[in-house]
Amino acid sequence: MAPTVLVVEDDPVIIDLLTLTLELEGWTVRKAMDADTALAMVHEDRPDVVLSDIMMPGTSGLALAADITGDPATADIPVVLLSARALPAEVAEGIAAGATDYVTKPFDPDNLVDRLQAVVDGVVRRQVGGADGGTAP
Fold first, then answer.
1. Is residue 133 part of a domain?
2. CATH number at residue 78
3. In this structure, is residue 109 part of a structural domain?
4. Cα 101 from Cα 2, distance rounded (Å)
5. Which regions of the chain does DSSP assign to beta strands (E)?
6. Does 137 fall in a domain?
7. How many structural domains compose the chain?
8. Cα(130)–Cα(108) distance, rounded to whole angstroms?
9. Distance CA 4, CA 57 (A)
10. Mean pLDDT in runs of 10 for the chain (137 residues)?
11. Would you state the pLDDT for residue 128?
12. What pLDDT is attached to residue 122?
């Protein structure tokens, strides 16, 4: 069965790019344009992984990660944050919020798919770095 990813992104161009990239690799993609909708979908659909932008109107991706990982009903669903915020302190903030991985924009689509698959497979636990495979300090 294809893994399911919930993509949470408020930019329609990026959400379309992510959807196309992931579907071409065999993923089932669910989409939400804000964190509140995403949280409801996490409880309903139980995706294999959540890929979320950080900077969105309303509730941030950081708060979404904390809500998902802090709720015993959804704590087993990994969250990967995707953001242009790439300073070491910002990456650390994302991991502290509960993210399993943190990918910086711009990202390499193939590397992003590999990293999501590694998270779903349980290979990656709290890995930090850019989508180029580098590790952030």
1. no
2. 3.40.50.2300
3. yes
4. 21
5. 4-8, 28-32, 49-53, 79-83, 101-104, 127-128
6. no
7. 1
8. 9
9. 24
10. 95 96 97 98 98 96 97 96 94 95 93 95 57 39
11. 41
12. 87
Residue 116 and residue 5 in contact, taking contact as beta carbons nearer than 8 Å: yes
Domain membership of residue 136 (yes or no) is: no
Helices 61-70 + 88-96 axis angle, to 10: 30
Task: Specify the pLDDT at position 136.
Answer: 36
**Cα(69)–Cα(112) distance, integer angstroms:** 21
What's the pLDDT score for residue 15? 96
The pLDDT value given to residue 1: 79
User: Between vectors from CA 99 to CA 98 and to CA 105, what angle results, nearest 5°?
Assistant: 145
Count other Cβ atoms within 10 Å, centred on residue 130: 18
Enclosing domain of residue 86: 4-128
- My answer on whether omega of the bond before 3 falls inside 30° of 0, hence cis, is no
Are 82 and 52 a contacting pair, CB within 8 Å? yes
Q: How far is it, in rounded angstroms, from Cα 68 to Cα 76?
A: 9
